[in-house]
Amino acid sequence: MIIRGWALRFASSVVTRGVKSPGSKKRLVVLSITAAVALGVATVQAGAIAADVNVRGKGAYCLSSDAARNLTAQGVTLEAVAPATIDDTCVTMPGAGTVAPDLTGGQVPLEGGMRFTSATGHHLDITHMIGHVRIGEGYNTADVAVDNEAAVNLDIAHWPVSMSRVSITPTTASMKDIPLTLTADARAAFIRAFGASPTAKDEPIFLFTGQGAITNPFSQLPKP
Question: Model pTM?
Fold first, then answer.
């Protein structure tokens, strides 16, 4: 609140000086920009702009080496569900959502999905995935369907979240090699489909790499 009050007083002072002083246009423009920034800070402090920022990008889910080896031994292959794409053992999905800059919350729905198929024709589909961000531990929910059963929305995987694992600039956010560990419900779905889980309880099935563009919150402010 101290920062907000200072910013408002500073902005008001700068605007007043800009109006009364007969100096050059260049000085007036500089003062106006400074005032706009100060007002922007005050507006953010006042909560006029939502804490979350919009993010649009893509995420790649790459099978861990253990998961890839176990699935191969089980005769299970991985495919992408459009508009997701696959490259070797990595499924990449586009998505867009909102994330808090301090990583205390956010949701990023992803488009498409993935299908695991056995040599005997059984399959497991994971679609409509949503990444839920929360500091400490994030999680993914998704619709999971075994063979021709109706899809069930499950909490399927958990992953560590910390500022040290995320790179943020004013316009981008990225993370790399984030381990995703299957939940008990997800492992049970794999067992029902193929007779075994691709990973043990505490071992990751995927390493996630994500990249996204952030919408600048100051773009929501009125032009000075």
Answer: 0.75
Token pair listed for 186? 């997800």
Are residues 71 and 78 in contact, defined by beta-carbon separation less than 8 angstroms? yes
Q: Which residue has the tokens 């100051």?
A: 218
For residues 65 and 203, give the distance between their C-alpha atoms in angstroms, rounded to a whole number: 11
CA-to-CA distance for 89 and 206, rounded, in angstroms?
Answer: 10
Using DSSP bridges, classify how beta strands 152-161 and 166-168 pair: parallel, antiparallel or unpaired.
unpaired
- C-alpha torsion 151→120→203→142, nearest 10: -10
**Residue 193 pLDDT more than 90?**
yes
Amino acid at 207: L
3-state secondary structure 3-19: HHHHHHHHHHHHHHHHH
Strand partners, 114: 80, 126
Q: How far is CA 204 from the centre of its chain?
A: 19
